[in-house]
Amino acid sequence: MSFSPLIRQLIDALRTLPGVGQKTAQRMALQLLERDRSGGSRLALALTQAMEGVGHCRLCRTLTEDDLCPQCADMRRDDTLLCVVEGPMDVYAVEQTGYRGRYFVLKGHLSPLDGLGPEAIGIPQLMTRIAEQGTFAEVILATNPTVEGEATAHYIAQLLSNKGLIASRIAHGVPLGGELELVDGGTLAHSFSGRRPITL
Amino acid sequence: MSFSPLIRQLIDALRTLPGVGQKTAQRMALQLLERDRSGGSRLALALTQAMEGVGHCRLCRTLTEDDLCPQCADMRRDDTLLCVVEGPMDVYAVEQTGYRGRYFVLKGHLSPLDGLGPEAIGIPQLMTRIAEQGTFAEVILATNPTVEGEATAHYIAQLLSNKGLIASRIAHGVPLGGELELVDGGTLAHSFSGRRPITL
């Protein structure tokens, strides 16, 4: 197995992409070189422009090259609702639900073992954002349903409890289209404790 | 779902990679932007250098930025053996077998329906290469075990039959580690017709 240096360098660089191992990187590199040079050059340009140009939104801290992201710049959204998520990808997931309030993007979740305290993930900036905006009535904590995500949600809820704001947590339960027998016990327990009366 | 323009452009560009759809491209783009900007810039540089710098080997026509690829430049390889494959990726697959002869890389296989005749895939250049080198005794046809690959191998074998060269085809049969009951009938038929006496 001996690739020429430039091809080897390209394969190594492609492996920095998440989910791309040696074989996939080889296939990508040779495919681009054999069949789609213009696509490869376009990708190089897009990467350069994005890596140099994209920063963070001044208000919600999601990724954008502008001062404000499209969600924060949209004047028609509900200024009484704030949704707190762990990362930019979560914003796009929540957008699919039809939610049209505001966002705040943390830098991940609290993780004391990794040395990630409230400052590291941007909780002080979240509290500043809430205080400066002054219009939020409810803060929806949409961190991941993991131990760290739950801890992060609880930490923020405690900070908010003195400020007269409703702090809510997204519901945990059985996902649509699943089968009860395949759902783990913890999730099923959540779906029981979170049960609601059927309104006819 | 509204990404800012630079991020959208990056996601679209990432989708030119083989096997990368919308979701994977989003994950790749946001991961690079959030956690690995230097990796993204390195990838952009590697892409630019490879797309502009990599051409084809003068002798075997595989991908390389040099005049000769590492396989053709290696003086210690066997000049009596020539292995014909459909693409550069196949060279690296065949190298794993321990084969240490020479290579010739076609541009795919004969496909009359797609307008790909002998000229389009480089068969005239293969014949020129064989004539100019003058040392080959055997040409191993290692095109893919598909209908088109077989047709391509037969076409080349016919051209070679007048030139006093041995044209051989790689063996088809049951792959190692498989189970007979899972092998298709065509493959099993090949493994029967290609059976060999056991030498003790």
TrEMBL record, chains A, B:
List residue spans of C4-type Zn fingers. 57-72
Q: Which GO terms describe its molecular function?
A: DNA binding; zinc ion binding
| PROSITE patterns (UniProt xref) | RECR (PS01300), TOPRIM (PS50880)
The answer to whether UniProt assigns keyword ATP-binding to this entry is no
The yes or no answer to whether the keyword Translocase is present is no
Key words, A-Z: DNA damage, DNA recombination, DNA repair, Metal-binding, Zinc, Zinc-finger
Occurrences of domain Toprim (ranges)? 80-175
SUPFAM superfamilies on file: Recombination protein RecR
Question: GO BP, one example?
Answer: DNA recombination
Task: Explain the purpose of this protein.
Answer: May play a role in DNA repair. It seems to be involved in an RecBC-independent recombinational process of DNA repair. It may act with RecF and RecO.
Family of this protein: Belongs to the RecR family.
Q: What is this protein called?
A: Recombination protein RecR
